[in-house]
Amino acid sequence: MQDELRALITRHCGTIAGKVESLAGMVTSLKHGSSHTGETLVMAIALTHEIRGSAGSIGFRDVFKTASALEDSLKVLSKTGREASDETFERMNALANLALNLRPEVSSLFDADLSGIARH
């Protein structure tokens, strides 16, 4: 069971990194004058939420926390119609750096003791 969990965690590293790369493009477009009240912002919020949920489920706490903060920033943009702040881009950069350096061993589940879990 531990090997299966580790394989899942390893797959999620690649999945999260790919999603963060896509998200970075969306967030960058907000900086270059695209209307952030439109489709790109909605898609960025949804993708950030996906990243957050995936990271939280598989034990990548720092990615979860950073994606949560970025999601909050993007939701504020959506509600207020304001321009993206430096803080939004800093959060995106922090998330991109985490994804770039994401390794399976970083997951809190990678070395979890699963001996007490019954297998069905």
Helix content: over 70%
Using the alpha-carbon principal axes, give the shape: elongated
Q: Any idea what the CATH architecture is?
A: Up-down Bundle
Q: Briefly, what CATH class?
A: Mainly Alpha
* Elements, N to C (H/E): HHHH
Number of helical elements: 4
Helix-and-strand structural type: mainly alpha
Might you state the CATH topology name? Answer: Four Helix Bundle (Hemerythrin (Met), subunit A)
Count of discrete structural domains: 1
* Cα distance spanning the termini: 11 Å
- Number of E-state strands: 0
Q: Whole-number radius of gyration?
A: 16 Å
Any descriptors?
mainly alpha, 120 residues, Four Helix Bundle (Hemerythrin (Met), subunit A), 4 helices, 71% helix
SSE inventory with pairings:
Blueprint: H1 2-31, H2 39-58, H3 61-80, H4 86-100
Question: What report would you give on this structure?
Answer:
The protein is an all-alpha fold. The chain has a single domain, classed as HPT domain (Four Helix Bundle (Hemerythrin (Met), subunit A)), CATH 1.20.120.160. The protein contains 4 helices and no strands. The mean pLDDT is 89.
Kindly summarize this structure in a few lines.
The chain is an all-alpha fold and 120 residues long. It has a single domain (2-106), classed as Four Helix Bundle (Hemerythrin (Met), subunit A), CATH 1.20.120.160.
